[in-house]
Structures are given as C-alpha cells and as structure tokens.
Amino acid sequence: MRAYLEVESLRLGERLKVEQTIGPGVLKVLMPPFSFQPLVENAVHHGLHSSPRAGAAAAHGLRDRTVA
Predict the structure, then answer these.
(1) What percent of the chain has pLDDT over 70?
(2) Within a 10 A sphere around the Cβ of 49, how many other Cβ atoms?
(3) pTM attached to this predicted model
(4) Which of 28, 35, 47, 67 is most deeply packed, by most CB within 10 A?
C-alpha cells in the first residue's frame, strides 16, 4: 500500500495528501496479502482521478489487544 501511495503521490503531486498512523505492533500482525490495497486504490481512483480538487488518503492502523 505504501508503494502504491508513493507512486500516486508522484503522479498527483500536491493534489494528494497521504496521512498514515500505524500503532505499535500493527505491522507484525499477519494479514492476507493485499487486503487493504484495493480499498486504497478505489478511494484514490474514484475520489481524486476524476476530480480536479485536492484530497487526502488516510490510513490508521491500531491493534486491539483485547482480541486474541
């Protein structure tokens, strides 16, 4: 997802603002590959490519330690 957003940031320039907040331990959690990337791609494609205005893509990852 990060690589995709970096490429889109180069393409869209100042029109795309990327905000990421990744909590401790989140990157160690096992997730199926490409679980979130299609969601991000759709958001950027349908939200920014068709609009001349600027927008933001925000990804916030937090881990709930109460769930096993």
Answers:
(1) 94
(2) 12
(3) 0.71
(4) 47
Mean pLDDT calculated for residue range 47-54 = 85
d(CA 25, CA 63): 7
Residue type, 38: P
Euclidean distance between CA atoms 48 and 16, whole angstroms: 8
Q: What is the DSSP string of the chain?
A: -HHHHHHHHHHHGGGEEEEEEE-TTGGGS---TTSSHHHHHHHHIIIIIT-SS-EEEEEEE---TT--
Question: Which residues lie below 8 Å from residue 10, measured CB to CB, with a gap of 6+?
Answer: none
